[in-house]
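Model the whole thing, not chain by chain.
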Amino acid sequence: MRSPKPHATTHLPEPGEPAPAVHRAASLAEEVYDAIFARLMALKIPPGARITVDNLVRELAVSQTPIREALGRLEGEGLVVKTHLVGYSAAPQITRRRFEELYELRLLLEPEMAGRAAARMTDAALAELTAAAGVMSRSGGIDERARYSQFARQDAVFHDQILGVAGNEMVRETLAHQHTHFHIFRLMFHARVTEEALDEHEAILAAFAARDADAARRAMRLHIERSRDRLLPAFEQ
Amino acid sequence: MRSPKPHATTHLPEPGEPAPAVHRAASLAEEVYDAIFARLMALKIPPGARITVDNLVRELAVSQTPIREALGRLEGEGLVVKTHLVGYSAAPQITRRRFEELYELRLLLEPEMAGRAAARMTDAALAELTAAAGVMSRSGGIDERARYSQFARQDAVFHDQILGVAGNEMVRETLAHQHTHFHIFRLMFHARVTEEALDEHEAILAAFAARDADAARRAMRLHIERSRDRLLPAFEQ
DNA sequence: CAATACGATTTCCTATAGGATTTCATATAG
DNA sequence: CTATATGAAATCCTATAGGAAATCGTATTG
């Protein structure tokens, strides 16, 4: 005689984040997806590591069905790979070749998008962008790793907001998608937060403030090229 | 487009046909994925239509588990959307806005890629490209719809092969992914196969034959712009 | 006619049992 | 000692049966 739990009151354990009082109408599969996604982004599941369904059943206190569904979705997004009769595992670390391809893609898209953003920039959007850039405080104090993790997140928000102003949602989604893969790489080889990156962001903001599309394009191109050169040594070791 | 995996040589049992006793190299979930993907691409499941798990259970003669897994993967790729306690449905038809964004994206990427392809072109690759373009025969005879369906497929192969020569796999995957969505749109409003498109392909080939990167860029840009203008009237009705 | 109540349908999720395959340790033959 | 074969454990994968929640249509009542 089994006594299944009522669905409406089941919540997945989200460490650090309190569950909302009102239950959002999200399926269990969706919550499982978020839980696994968070574990991947936090490197709690490192690249290439096995992901067994049984472990997740125990860890998340859900049956196999929503877990399989969530893993299928993660597979469709390329964050997880499946081998028949072996199981799921986190996607492998990005290769140098793929790293360079990503920066080629960014250089083809982001400078142009920055130019359009400058042409369409509003005062409200500029204020938001400045705020996002401002959060990346130069002040030390926190430990290096936590600080870089915060910088990586804020840098992503900054670039994403620019793409939002530029107005092409498809480009925005494409780069956001690639960024989720890239994020893991950045955290693995967490480079120091350089003052240069912050200077480059300010140069982009200055071009936006002047509504200078051409300067925005140049500043963005320079920023991405330098970002690439800063991270490239990670492959040399 | 699905990730490259060793492909199964076996198929799902046709209705009435018993399942083979020998073990299949590919998981059932993978075969189910292919089956649903094919139904979406062939418009057998039109955009927005409901996709119930039970129907697929009956139609494909497998249990719910692999079907849920496959639907999850399709959801991750954006070809299918899920609503809690309502179920799955095929992704809605592309909007005009999204159509224009796609062509912006293509114009930012494909001309540049065509230029690189021209610089890296080999005789073997050129022969393959010419063959792919040649399959799109100008001869009539077949009925209009089947002919356009064939053209759409071959056009996709042509562009994809160019991206392969250009050498950036990430760009190639990105555009292939977007193309699966776009393909459905093209079939819904199957425009006539114009002789123009074939002429444009030949112009691109000529630039490749001359290893002229600049001409390839121009020809590709013109081809995409004209393709956009040919399809745009579909939104006017 | 309008509003509510109720049942049927659909869908999500769970549970359990068992078959198939890989991996790894152990034993045996050369 | 090395290489191959055998067997056990772990894991994945499938099938089936059914409970809980939401939606929809219909019928009843004011």
